[in-house]
Amino acid sequence: SYVLTQPPSVSVAPGKTAKISCGGSNIGNKPVHWYQQRPGQAPVLVIFYDTDRPSGIPERFSGSNSGNTATLTISRVEAGDEADYYCQVWDTPGDHWVFGGGTRLTVL
Amino acid sequence: QVHLVQSGPEVKKPGASVKVSCKASGYSFTDFYIHWVRQAPGHGLEWLGRVNSNSGDTKYEKKFQGRVTMTRDTPISTAYMELSSLQSDDTAVYYCTRAHGDNWFDSWGQGSLVTVSS
User: Fold this and answer.
1) Strands (E), A17-101
2) For residues A34 and A44, is the Cβ–Cβ distance under 8 A?
3) A15: which of A23, A93, B26, B116 lies 20 to 30 Å off by Cα?
4) CB A25: neighbour CB atoms within 10 A?
5) How many CB atoms lie within 10 A of CB B76?
6) pLDDT above 80 (res B102)
7) pLDDT at A93
8) What residues form DSSP beta bridges with A12?
9) What number is the average pLDDT over the span B100-105?
C-alpha cells in the first residue's frame, strides 16, 4: 500500500519559516492535504489540493507538491503554530485514504 | 456551520464490541461521505473506512475488514462505527470526519475515547 513519510520533528524559532516534508512515490501526481492537530484537539484542515487554504487559515500557511515530495511551509512562525502536522492523500489504486506519520513542530 | 458531535467515552473488556455515533448538523447529511479515523495514545492518524451517507455503501481499510461495520441513519443525520473483538491495541480516540469528495476531510468530530482494558 501507499506510504507517506514525514520527519518526526521540526524545530524553528519564532518569526522564521518552517518547512515540513511529506515523501511518497510520485506524490506530485496526487492531491495532498495537510492537517494541524494541537494537543488534545481534533485535526484541522490547513491546506487542501496541494496549495489551497480553507477560509480562516492564515496566509502564512502554504503548500507545494512535486516529484516525490510535498511540502507544508509556515512563514513567520508563531508560538500558536506549535502542533502536530499530518499530510494525507487518497490512494486511488487501493481506494483507501492514507496519512503520513505526522511531524511535531516545536517553536523554540 | 458544520458540526459533528460524537458519543462519549467507552470502557470495554477485551473481546467486546463498541459502537460510536456521530451526529451531523449544519449541512445536508446525505451530500457527503463520513469517514472514521482513529489515533492511539502517542501515535498518528489511522484511517478505518467510510460510509456513503446517501446509499449506505461502505469501504473499509483491509486491516479492519471483518471487524468493523459502518452504518448511517439518514432521518437523524447520524453515522455509526462499530468495532468488534476489541483488544488492548484498539485503545484510541476515534474520530468521525466529513469528506469533501474523494479527497480532504473538512470537518471533524470532537473524538470518542475507547479504552479496552480487562
Assistant:
1) 18-23, 33-37, 44-47, 61-66, 69-74, 83-91, 96-99
2) no
3) A23
4) 11
5) 10
6) no
7) 79
8) A107
9) 84
SS3 B30: helix
CB pairs under 8 A between A and B: 55
| Predicted local confidence at residue A5, as pLDDT | 98
| CA dist., res. B48 & res. B77, Å (int) | 20
Interatomic CA distance for residues B50 and B79, integer angstroms = 10
DSSP-derived secondary structure letter, A52: B
How does strand B45-51 pair with strand B58-60? antiparallel
What is the phi-psi region of residue A45: left when phi exceeds 0, alpha when psi lies from -120 to 50, beta otherwise? beta
> Rounded mean pLDDT of chain A?
96
Q: Are A12 and A105 in contact (CB under 8 A)?
A: yes
Contacts of A88 in chain B (CB under 8 A): 45, 104-105
Contacts of A32 in chain B (CB under 8 A): none
pLDDT at B11 over 80: yes
Using pLDDT thresholds of 50, 70 and 90, give the confidence band for residue A6.
very high
Q: Is A99 on the interface with B (CB under 8 A)?
A: yes
Residue with cell 521540526: A10
Q: Which chain B residue is nearest to residue A85, measuring alpha carbons? A: B44
